């Protein structure tokens, strides 16, 4: 099947793109990498009146550090983020997550912001950014506003982005870079959507007790999930085998995933506990090793 007929516009500035969005409203769709939108158009699950091609907006393609923030433009290719030395230095969790996205051809075309806007609950970028306490910057013809990633995702394939708005960039705080991190996921084969994924950033004090932790889970709800119970359970403690088991159970206790043709509800719950334990253990050991190398 091929897409329904549509008008095609190619703005030369973000402001021009915002004007088109204001004009067409919900009948206008932005396209950049097209890795998510083109299949939807081909299946006629969406039949917009107009496609607004923003792939040529060079002002939204960058990776740079300013003050205590790492800024990544929304149209930066995923492969460029994956290969960035600055990303590896400032947000190693994100660098570890990027290679899990599809295949290299996917990442060569897919944009960093496109993954966020598509809001698939199994996607690697949203899950990582939730763990990293990132924020997104959104622009319309009237204003520019910032939203925490934690508040950006509303439900499955739905975000806080309005029809007349465009995602400009992602901001990741870098004032304190956790020494412990881990991203892991399980899929039927490499390149498939994850059945369950997990991300963790963690730091320890001089006595190797956990000083901070954020654990996130994907594929277990309509949006990426922050496992809040884990923080209260393990802060101030050394990560023993018994505590790791208790924490992984706590991470899976308050989620209620749906079963589908790929995995039952019970299997996803099992995977959530297994991968919560794996990322916690890996992040903790990296934090302990990082503390030792810094002294």
Automatic annotation (TrEMBL):
Keywords recorded for this protein, A-Z: FAD, Flavoprotein, Oxidoreductase
PROSITE patterns membership: FAD_PCMH
Pfam family, one: FAD_binding_5
SMART domains found in the cross-reference section: CO_deh_flav_C
Database matches in InterPro entries: CO_DH_flav_C (IPR005107), CO_DH_flav_C_dom_sf (IPR036683), Diverse_Substr_Oxidored (IPR051312), FAD-bd_PCMH (IPR016166), FAD-bd_PCMH-like_sf (IPR036318), FAD-bd_PCMH_sub1 (IPR016167), FAD-bd_PCMH_sub2 (IPR016169), Mopterin_DH_FAD-bd (IPR002346)
Domain FAD-binding PCMH-type: 1-177
Molecular function terms, GO-annotated: FAD binding; oxidoreductase activity
Coiled coil regions, renumbered to chain: none
Protein name: Molybdopterin dehydrogenase FAD-binding protein
Biological source species: Brevibacillus panacihumi W25
């Amino acid at each position: 099947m091929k897409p329904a007929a549509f008008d095609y516009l190619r703005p030369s500035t973000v402001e021009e793109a915002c004007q088109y969005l204001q004009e067409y409203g919900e009948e206008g769709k932005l396209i950049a990498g097209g890795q998510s939108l083109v299949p939807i158009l081909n299946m006629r699950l969406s039949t917009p009146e107009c496609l607004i091609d923003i792939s040529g907006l060079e002002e939204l393609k960058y990776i740079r550090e300013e003050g205590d923030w790492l800024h990544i433009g929304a149209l930066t290719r995923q492969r460029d983020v994956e290969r960035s030395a600055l990303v590896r230095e400032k947000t190693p969790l994100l660098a570890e997550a990027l290679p899990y996205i599809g295949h290299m051809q996917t990442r060569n075309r897919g944009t960093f912001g496109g993954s966020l806007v598509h809001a698939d609950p199994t996607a690697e970028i949203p899950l990582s950014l939730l763990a990293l306490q990132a924020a997104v910057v959104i622009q319309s013809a009237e204003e520019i506003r910032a939203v925490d990633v934690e508040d950006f995702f509303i439900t499955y394939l739905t975000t806080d982005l309005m029809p007349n708005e465009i995602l400009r960039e992602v901001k990741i705080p870098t004032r304190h870079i956790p020494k412990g991190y881990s991203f892991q996921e399980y899929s039927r084969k490499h390149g498939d959507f994850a059945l369950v994924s997990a991300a963790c950033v963690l730091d320890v004090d001089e006595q190797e007790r956990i000083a901070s932790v954020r654990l996130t889970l994907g594929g277990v709800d309509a949006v990426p999930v922050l496992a809040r119970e884990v923080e209260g359970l393990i802060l101030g403690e050394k990560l023993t085998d018994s505590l790791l088991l208790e924490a992984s159970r706590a991470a899976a206790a308050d989620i209620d995933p749906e079963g589908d043709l790929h995995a039952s509800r019970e299997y996803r719950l099992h995977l959530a506990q297994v991968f919560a334990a794996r990322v916690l253990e890996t992040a903790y050991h990296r934090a302990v090793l990082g503390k030792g190398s810094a002294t």
